[in-house]
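Batch manifest, entry 17 of 40.
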Amino acid sequence: MKYIRVWPVLFLLLGLGGCFSIKERETLSLPAPDISKAHNIAGQKLQNFQEKKENAAQLPAVLGGVISSERWVIYKDKEQEEFEGDVSYDNGTYLFRAQYALSDRKKNLFTAKKQVYARKNETDKSYYELYADKATYQYSTADGTATANKGKRIKLIYHDAKGALVTALAQKADFNVKQKIYHLTGNVLVTHQDPLGKVSTLKADKISADQANNRAFLEGNAVVENADYRLQSQTIEYDGTQQMAYAYGNRPLASGKTPDGTFAIIADKVSAQTDTRKIKLSGQVQGWVVSEQINNSKANESLNTNF
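Output type: structure tokens
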């Protein structure tokens, strides 16, 4: 049997403890309404639903709308609600699905397990998506965590209003949706595709992103690359506001191709202007550059040296 709930009605039921009895663990059931009052009750429920749906975008994803599942259990003393089997929620702004969910009102904590999917639609037509095996969300602080089972990775997707697509894979993600801060750990791979279809990738043991300030921090076996360039280092910092990237640790290696030829250079530190593509290397700079200008120069015709 599938249950459909309106959350404000639930609050009213919990407050009226003398009207019915709920044991420590019992599926909630209510007597059928008087047929003579059915029309008024249906009309009132519809009005409540419409009011809550209009206000739902201002509330956390587990409140102010309708949730459905195959089984619904209330733990009255713990102030918890448990949902099992095809759990779903959709108010137009938030979409959520899982096979299990637990709402803990004392802790303001919502937990979901098994085939977790969540989506948040923004007013500018951009949207976020999450796929995970387990997720928690603290809706008083907007902090959340998503994890994958052993051998798997979670997936985060951001599609912006201009058509750019960002896809992130990791074993775990900690995030705050209000501050738009994300920490991805464990075999992290981020793919960015701009509106013209150009693709760039980021890889690291850990990637932290501050979307509001347009900054990213890659730690451990960090690699940034596209069709033309590759930068690998122990640590890479990206400042989108200043359009600068910095690489250091384990002798960063910059390689790739230009209209004139190819290059591969290592140094102690590398900094690059992402808009002008100017690269500065410092500290024991070593490597090679090949270009038509160098190949055709007179200096390349002969070599005189002593061994």
